[in-house]
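Supplementary Text 2. Reproducibility record for the structural model of the 225-residue chain.

All settings were left at their defaults, and a single model was retained for analysis rather than an ensemble. We include the record here because the model underlies the residue-level annotations in Supplementary Table 4.
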Amino acid sequence: MLRIDILTVVPELLDSPLSHSIPGRAVKKGLAEIHIHNLRKYGLGPRLTVDDYSYGGDAGMVMMVEPVFRYIEELTSERHYDEIIYMAPDGEIFDQGMANELSLKENIIILCGHYKGIDERIREHLITREISVGNFVVSGGEIPAAIVADAIIRLLPGALTDETSALSDSFQDGLVSPPVYTRPAEFNGWKVPDVLLSGNPKLIRAWQDEQSIARTRERRPEMLK
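Retained model, structure tokens:
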């Protein structure tokens, strides 16, 4: 079973995305555990402070090293973690191959940054992997962490009703998925391609392969390199 522990200063942002749909069902089936931890448990002073002004006078608040260290110390004293991940704008770009790899782990910690970022000493001494979901900045690491957790959990055996569905997802074979259609076969004069109605699996597969390559060339040409 996969266990994911997520450290955050805004746990409310993660409750809903990971409690419903495929992640929620996977947890109910006992395929995964998701634990969301509020870093203010180890906040300093009467206000449980987790951030402070940065040395050097730059604008924005920085997450302090001590609350993060204390929480990671608590978790790692209870079990071994395969990865301690920081959701970082300048991290390794997350992709399907990485999701496949992480779905084979047993225990993962994901640290969500907030404010201006985290004290660099956390990155230097505690983090084993830094992941980004794209070359842009959002308010915190919570939504990116939910994306990563969802992508990993849906790959667990039994998480999907039809386990073969994940095998045909975009990027699993290095290509984007071909177009898909469902009933009715014609609507408003818009028709489903005849080959998909032919009942011939060999022709259908050939058409899907052609469409995947063409769509990848059009929309993700860098993948064909």
